[in-house]
Every structure is written in C-alpha cells, then in structure tokens.
From TrEMBL:
SUPFAM superfamilies: ABC transporter transmembrane region (SSF90123), P-loop containing nucleoside triphosphate hydrolases (SSF52540). Residues 76-95 are annotated as: Disordered. This is Uncharacterized protein TCIL3000_11_16840. GO terms for cellular component: membrane. Residues 80-89 have a biased composition (Polar residues). Residues 469-708 form the ABC transporter domain. It comes from Trypanosoma congolense (strain IL3000). It is found in: Membrane. Keywords: ATP-binding, Membrane, Nucleotide-binding, Transmembrane, Transmembrane helix. Its main location: membrane.
Length: 721
C-alpha cells in the first residue's frame, strides 16, 4: 500500500479507496488525495487490513498494482468457479468466495488535469469525422475560402497605394493635357475597380465559408450532444445519485458551446490570422524595408506576449467564476425541484439568502474578470499605438527624403491596420479559447469517467431458463468516503424460478439495495449474484436487464403525456394494450375523468399527479412491458385492498405462467401469501426465511414486526414503520 501511495503522489489524480472486511463487517476506508503540486495529503491508512487487492478503474497512465500477502491464511476450498480461496485469521479481511477482499480505487480526473492536446484532439476528431467524406470536403472548401479571403484582404492596401501614387504622379506627366487626363482617368478607374472587386470577392468568400461550414457545425453539434447523452446514460447509478442536476446541465451547456467556439476559433481564426500576419510581413518587407517589418514583428510579439501573460493571470478568475456559476445553477434547480418542501417549512427567505450569497460571490469574480479585461485591452491598444506612431515617423522621414512615396506611407499605415484587426480578434480569440478549453476539459473529464460496473469483453448473453435468482455470500457497502456503512453482510438466499418471494425488514436494512444488485446497478464487494446459475458479472448487461422489470419505491415520470409514460414500457404497444394495462393498474377510470385523458401532461417528475396515481402509472407501465422477472419495491403501498389483490394476481403471471416475483413491502398483509419470506435485520444479514405462518410461530423478528403492526394499527392493514 505504501508503494502504491508513493507512486500516486507523483501523479495528478484524486484517488478514492475503500475496503470492507466481510467477516467482521467492519468498513475500512482511506482517502488518498493527490494535489497538482506533488503534495500527498493522506489520512492514516494503517487501518487497511492486509490481503487487499487493488483494482484500478481508470487512469490515463500506468498505475502499478500492489497486493500485500495474506498472513496466517488458511485454505477454504474451492468456490463455484473452481478457484481456491484463503481465509484470514481473526481481525483480518476476508472477501468473496474466492477468499479476497476487493477494494476499488476510483480515479477521478480533475478537469484542470486534462492536457490541452486532448482538447484539441477532441475538437479535431469531430471536425474531421471518420467515414464522412461529405463533411470533410466541406471543411476543405471552407478553409480554402478563408485563405482566398485573406489573400484578397492583403491585396486591398496595395491597390489603395497604387491609386494614391497614380494621383500623386499625375502632375509630373508631360504631353498633351487631354491625353494625359484621359490616360490618368483610365488608370485610376481600373485601379479603383480592382480595389472594389478585391473587397467584394473577399467579403463573398467570407460568407461562403460560413455557408459551407454550417452543415459541418450542425453535424458535429448533434454528434457531440448524442455522445454526451449516451455517456451520461451509460454511467453508474452511483454517479447520478451524487450529481446535482443543475450543475451537470450547466457543465454540459458550457461544454457544448465551448466545443463550437474552439472549433470555429481554431479553424477560421487562429490559423488564418497567422497566415495573414505572414503575408503582411512579406508585402511590407518588399515595399517598405527592414525597419518597418522589424517594427511590425516587434508589435506582434509584444501583443502576443502581453495577451498570453494577462490571460493566464485571468484564468484563475475564470475557473472560480465557472465553479460559482455552476453552483448557482445547481442551487436554483435544486430549490425549485423542492418547491413543496420550501413551502411546507416557510423557507422562502432562507432560499433567497442562499441564492443571494452565492450570486454575490459569483458576481465578484465576474467583476474581477471585467476589470482584468480592461487592463488587457488597454495594454493591447497601447502596443499598437506605439507601433503605428513609430511606423508613421519612419514613413514620414522616408517621404521627406524621397526614398518613399506617399502611396508607400499609405500602404504601411494600411498594412499595420491590417495586422491590428486580426490580432485584436486574436486577443479576444485567445481569451475565448482559454475559457472554452477549461469548459471542454470539464466535458472531457466527464467522458473519461469509467464505470465501476463494467461488462467483460467476453461477456455472454443470458440463457434464460426459469428465472431462478441466487445471492451467494454477498457483502456490500457504498464506496462513498462519507458513508462508511456496510449495507449487506454475507447475505445468501435463493429465489426459485416462477415463485413469489418477499423481502421484509426494518428501514435501512438494505432491501432496495438487493434489487439494485440484482439489476447490477452495483457490484458486491464480496460474493456474487446469479440468474439461472449464471453470475451477472459474466453476462452481457442488456441480456439480463431486458428480462427484469422494476417498480421502484419512488416513481418518477417523464414530463410527457400519460400515454407516453405508460407506453414507455413497450413503445410499440397498441391503444388496446395500453388501456388494458391501465385497467389492471386501476388508473383507467381516473385518466378518463381528466380533460385531456391519456394526452394529459403529468408535469416534471409527475408532480401533477398524486403519489397513488404515479404508482399506478408505474404498475401499468410494467404490466405493458411484461417482464419475466419482476422486482417490486412497495409497488402497491398506495392502493386499496381490492385493487391491490387484483394487481398482485396480474403481477404474478406472464404469458400464462408464473413469473419470478420479488416483493418489498412494509405492509405485511401484502406479502403474507408469498411462497417464501426472507427477513433481513438492521445489520443487513438474513435472520429468517419461510412462509408466513411458520415465521409467526418461530417468534423471531418477523413475528415482532407483525405484532407491532397489529398493536399500532389494530383496525388497519399491517405495516412496518
């Protein structure tokens, strides 16, 4: 462990490490935080038991694994997979059936640690899409238009110089005045025409560039949005439980806008501006001489250096502003989502003060950004004013000495202005690129997150038989450093295929966690979960998830119609199927009383419906999807007894045969007819199992819960508090 920590101290990672003792149910945790300056901040890790194996979930570089030997280990035989494990002595950690404790190291990249080349590479990959020759051709044409526009822009001052020289030299032309005037008019007219055509074609190519690139921009924006959307849906449940919706949406919005800003800046501003500077310097060298080009180059170098130094100084303010901006967005969304709670406790003023405090902090950073921007702009203006005055002095001396014409003076001044225009944009572009890079780094850090629940490369599809589910020596604890509870301890039970099984226990005993393990939202720290004898870790996720239906305890609906929410369980369901499912759930009559019936919008998270109505919609949705295995967490808590009995009968069957049904219920009358009842105690261990009557006679925890409900609610349904 010391070797691992020493190695990590040299890496710019934040590392979380968690380890669980499966025998004594003692959770050992250590957080290793590695700063960007090579400083290792580490709480004591001596409590971590020997015999752990460290598994790296994500890292951009090599991370050497270190597995200390297990002392005083004794063989415990072979597990179901045929591997031989060990059993540590008292006080040491014992893990899964193979005899090891699994400790996961979750490496979370800080956005600031994403190198700039990763950002540029990400932008380039989307601008030059693989297998899309149409969009590649449009990019090439757009760049060609930009190059042509820059060449014509540099030519414009040259035409202007020629016109001035022609008019200046008119007085010195000898010959017939009429002939001289006609020739002069013809010459000037041609020069003015060339000047106008150059400017017109330059503007045309600029607009053509935008028109040609528009399809590429739309395509890349769509691709990027879908990539981010798919990534978010692929992330673990634990990630989503720990994220603030407002902060996440703000980060994604800034990331999407930053992608477009970077793409446009790199393709149409940075490279073309560099090309234009080179062209201007070449023209100035041939027409004005070395002193002028040295003045121009000195101005360009000073401008870039000033912009770089001040912009880097401003980056700290930008990072703080982005963080506070996300915080304000998250606080606002969270407060509005909890509108009822705010009203119930009369905390409107408190929420306003919270928002005012965060907004004040954010605006302070914004003020510092604006002030530093003023300093940056003044310095840029001063550099070019000094360069313009110097060049004007040199060209004036040249005209007076006869080495330069008036047209040359005009050309030098115009070329300097030609330089100032793109460089002034370049300063703005650099600031924008810097801000966009920071936003893109946050987005790439999101794309870099590796799931703790991963599908094996050689994972096989589920071979469904009868839906038998087995929990084998399962130990589970959350990997959040702030939550050190062990939820389940060495839990083992079997649910026969086609049976109805209930899981009962006090609140916080891990009943809902069992469902999430079966669906493989989480992996156990020790032990395994199997369906029809096949470990979930060896199966393709979609293959077993498609046969499992879940009615969660907290039903959340889409902000769509009732029709959409019910048919979400089976998108190709007919109208008759939808109505039949709603009737089974006992919600059809209530829907028909609504003004828009099945086209009624339910509101965000279904807030326009009551808790009972939302639960019935969830039941209708699961009836329509008709899964072979059903996990129901308090599925009928809001239903009356008659409706509950009818619904339970429908939930037990699928396709004319009994489905595997696992129920979680606090109201014990709901599950008293179950084939098997598993009783979980407050420590997360299985303390009893059997049928209702047998459990009552045993006088254990189930009997206590039943008696307590009878005592608390003698005239009502029996219910565990």
């Amino acid at each position: 462990m010391r070797r691992t920590a020493q190695y990590l101290s040299a890496r710019p990672f934040r590392v979380r490490l968690s380890c669980v003792n499966a025998v004594h149910s003692t959770c050992y945790r250590a957080a290793v935080s590695v700063g960007g300056y090579g400083t290792l901040v580490r709480p004591p890790v001596t409590a971590i038991p020997l015999g752990i194996s460290v598994r790296v979930l994500h890292t951009s570089g090599m991370l050497h694994l270190f597995q200390p030997p297990v002392t005083n280990a004794k063989p415990i035989g072979k597990d179901s997979t045929g591997s031989v494990g060990t059993k540590a002595s008292s006080g040491e950690a014992v893990g899964n059936s193979a005899g090891e404790t699994r400790a996961s190291v979750a490496v979370e990249r800080d956005p600031g640690e994403i190198p700039v080349y990763r950002v540029v590479s990400h932008v380039a990959r989307h601008l030059w899409p693989h297998g899309e020759p149409k969009y590649r051709a449009l990019v090439v044409c757009s760049v060609a238009c930009v190059v042509l526009a820059k060449v014509l822009k540099v030519a414009v001052p040259f035409w202007f110089k020629t016109i001035v020289d022609a008019l200046t030299d008119a007085g010195g032309i000898a010959g017939n005045p009429v002939t001289v005037a006609s020739a002069l008019q013809l010459s000037v007219f041609g020069l003015v025409t060339a000047y106008g055509v150059s400017r017109l074609v330059s503007s045309l190519t600029e607009e053509m560039k935008s028109a040609l690139f528009a399809p590429v921009g739309c395509h890349t924006s769509t691709t990027m949005a879908i990539e981010l959307f798919a990534k978010l849906h692929s992330l673990d449940l634990q990630y989503h439980l720990g994220r603030e919706t407002g902060v996440l949406s703000k980060d994604l919005d800034r990331g999407s806008r930053a992608f477009w800003s970077l793409a446009h800046a790199l393709l149409f501003m940075v490279v073309p501006t560099a090309f234009e500077v080179i062209l201007v310097c070449m023209v100035m060298r041939s027409c004005a001489g070395v002193p002028f080009i040295m003045t121009a180059l000195a101005a360009v170098a000073s401008y870039i250096a000033w912009t770089y130094v001040v912009s880097n100084w401003r980056a700290e303010y930008r990072a703080r502003f982005n963080k506070l901006d996300s915080r304000v967005s998250g606080l606002t969304v969270d407060s509005l989502l909890n509108y009822e709670t705010v009203k119930y406790f009369g905390k409107e003023k408190y929420e306003e003060e919270r928002l005012r405090h965060e907004t004040t902090c954010m605006n302070y950073q914004l003020m510092r950004l604006d002030q530093s921007m003023s300093l940056l702009n003044f310095g840029q203006q001063a550099i070019f004013v000094l360069a313009a005055v110097t060049s004007l002095y040199l060209s004036t001396c040249g005209v007076l000495s006869g080495t330069m014409s008036v047209g040359d003076l005009v050309l030098v001044d115009a070329l300097l202005m030609q330089l100032y225009t793109p460089l002034s944009f370049l300063g703005m572009i650099y600031r924008e690129v810097q801000a966009s890079t920071q936003n893109m780094q946050a987005m790439i850090a999101l794309l870099d997150i590796e799931n703790t629940v991963q599908e094996q490369v050689d994972a096989k599809p589920l071979e469904f038989k009868d839906g038998t589910i087995e929990m084998r020596n399962v130990t589970f604890a959350f990997s959040d450093p702030g939550d050190s509870r062990v939820i389940l301890r060495d839990l083992s039970f079997t649910v026969p295929g086609g049976s109805t099984v209930a899981i009962v226990g006090p609140s916080g005993s891990g009943k809902s966690t069992i469902f999430r393990l079966i669906y493989r939202f989480y992996d156990p720290l020790a032990g395994s979960v199997l369906i029809d004898g096949q470990p979930l870790t060896e199966l393709q996720l979609k293959s077993f998830r498609k046969v499992i239906g879940v009615i969660p305890q907290d039903t959340v609906l889409f902000n769509e119609t009732l029709r959409y929410n019910i048919c979400y369980g089976c998108l190709d369901a007919t109208e008759e199927d939808m109505i039949r499912a709603a009737q089974v759930a006992g919600i059809h009559d209530s829907i028909m009383k609504m003004s828009d019936k099945y086209d009624t919008i339910v509101g965000e998270r279904g807030l326009k419906l009551s808790g009972g109505e939302k639960q019935r919609i969830a039941i209708a949705r699961i009836v329509l999807s008709d899964p072979k295995i059903l996990l129901a967490d308090e599925a009928t808590a809001a239903l009356d007894s008659m409706t509950e009995m009818h619904v339970m009968q429908r939930l037990r069957e699928t396709g004319g045969r009994r489905r595997t049904l696992i129920l979680i219920a606090h109201r014990l009358t709901t599950i008293k007819d179950a084939d098997i009842i598993f009783v979980i105690d407050s420590r997360g261990t299985l303390c009893e199992s059997g049928k209702h009557e047998a459990l009552l006679q045993s006088g254990g925890l189930y009997s206590e819960l039943w008696s307590k409900q009878l005592h608390d609610n003698p005239k009502h349904d029996t219910k565990v508090s």
